[in-house]
Write a structure and sequence with these properties.
Blueprint: H1 2-87, H2 89-97, H3 103-116, H4 122-142, H5 150-163, H6 167-181, H7 186-202, H8 214-221, H9 228-242, H10 247-251, E1 258-261, E2 264-269, E3 281-285, H11 289-303, H12 323-337, H13 347-358, H14 363-370, H15 375-379, H16 393-409
Antiparallel strand pairs: 1-2, 2-3
Helix pairs in contact: 2-3, 4-6, 5-6, 5-7, 6-7, 9-11, 9-13, 13-14
Length: 410
């Protein structure tokens, strides 16, 4: 009995002890919870710092990868340019002339190569290179190796272009072949001249595209809303029509290229398709009061930006409108005007030239103002005249002259 009573007393004492010590342990539990929260905050901070480090390292790696891609792209372009030089027949002749290991000759060879790359416009050289590659592919595909000379292959290539109704391409192809390979030998020159003459006679007639009529131009520039997009497209139409500018010339205009002089707008054309030596040209545009208001408002909008161009790309600080964007906004403007005619970007230039001739301006002055290189190219832009008024006294004078000549013959 004593043992059992002692065990009960021990259990009660343990329960009482546990019960007594519980309130003393509770503040320790609260302290441990606070320390645990602080540790969680510290771990979160460490994680954030680690994540920022990862982001910074990833951005640095992406920048490094982008720069490496640019470097690889530039190296690839240089390699392609070097390969083109090696394949170019004109450069091979230069290598044969200046063949040697001396540093002076090597420098001279490089200088000659640089001059050969600048004797034509870059776009012209690209077209010639494309034609040359087409000729090489045709030669490998169509002619037996070793049986025909180079002159014979050239003549056959040009004749096949004419057969395939590509007479215009045959004329430019002859220029490209002469540029890279030199003229044909004297015995074959007469035959080449006959082929080129056949190409000129086989060319399709010039297609006269739609020209902007003065009434349509007035509706194009008659804008109701003076927002920056409407002002830009209206100002573009003004300079294309009044200045007889090409679309590329208008888009390349910078802010310092336009200034007012005695109430007229003076523009400086830096580069042109027919300006080989970059001499530039200046033109004075006579604008109406409405056109002047549109141009001044658009100039104010463009002056508020750091973009140097007059017809700016709103999403860029350094570039002008692209050709595709300019064509799109012009077409959208014609749709708003309710015009369904297929007006291209050159329709302003041709329409202005036709309107000037109809008002009595001489063709020579219009040709000079529009900077056309040849009269043949100018005729393609002017609307052909199908009706003229002949004075009534002309037939009588003709009859009188014919009678006098008949009496003299007797």
């Amino acid at each position: 009995m004593t043992d059992s009573s002692d065990s009960k007393n021990v259990i009660l004492v343990c329960k009482h002890a546990c019960h007594v010590h519980k309130p003393q342990e509770s503040p320790q539990i609260v302290i441990i919870g606070i320390e645990h929260k602080e540790e969680e905050k510290a771990t979160d901070l460490r994680r954030k710092k680690a994540s920022t480090r990862i982001v910074e390292s990833s951005s640095q790696s992406s920048y490094a990868s982008s720069t490496s891609k640019k470097n690889k792209k530039e190296a690839r372009k240089k390699k392609e340019a070097r390969k083109k030089r090696e394949e170019n027949p004109r450069f091979e002749k230069v290598k044969e002339i200046f063949n040697g290991d001396e540093a002076q000759r090597l420098d001279l060879w490089q200088n000659v190569i640089n001059c050969l790359e600048k004797d034509r416009a870059p776009t012209t050289i690209k077209i010639y290179e494309h034609t040359m590659r087409s000729y090489i592919r045709w030669k490998q595909r169509s002619t037996p190796r070793g049986r025909l000379g180079e002159d014979e292959c050239r003549l056959l290539f040009l004749a096949e272009l004419i057969k395939n109704e590509k007479a215009k391409s045959a004329i430019s192809a002859n220029c490209a072949l002469n540029y890279f390979m030199g003229p044909v030998s004297k015995p074959n020159r007469s035959l080449l001249n006959s082929i080129i003459e056949a190409a000129k006679r086989s060319k399709s007639p010039t297609k006269h595209r739609e020209k902007v009529e003065p009434e349509d131009y007035s509706s194009f520039t008659n804008i109701q809303e003076f927002d920056r997009d409407s002002l830009r497209v209206a100002a573009l139409g003004i300079v294309l029509f009044r200045g007889l500018l090409r679309i590329s010339e208008a888009l390349n205009l910078r802010k310092e290229d336009a200034e007012w002089e005695r109430g007229e707008l003076k523009i400086s054309i830096r580069t042109s398709k027919t300006d080989k030596y970059h001499e530039g040209a200046k033109r004075l545009l006579v604008l109406s009061s409405e056109e002047q208001a549109i141009w001044r408002a658009h100039s104010k909008n463009s002056d508020n930006t750091t973009n140097p161009y007059i017809f700016q790309n709103w999403n860029s600080k350094t570039t002008s409108m692209s050709y595709n964007n300019a064509r799109k906004v012009i077409n959208d403007r014609w749709k708003k005007c309710g015009k369904v005619k297929n007006y291209g970007t050159h329709a302003f230039r041709g329409g202005a030239a036709s309107a000037a001739i109809n008002e009595g301006v001489s063709a020579e002055k219009v040709l000079s103002f529009g900077r056309w290189k040849t009269e043949k190219a100018f005729r393609a832009y002017v609307k052909p005249t199908t009706r003229i008024s002949i004075p009534r006294s002309a037939p009588a004078q003709l009859d009188k002259r014919s009678s006098i000549s008949a009496n003299n013959d007797c």
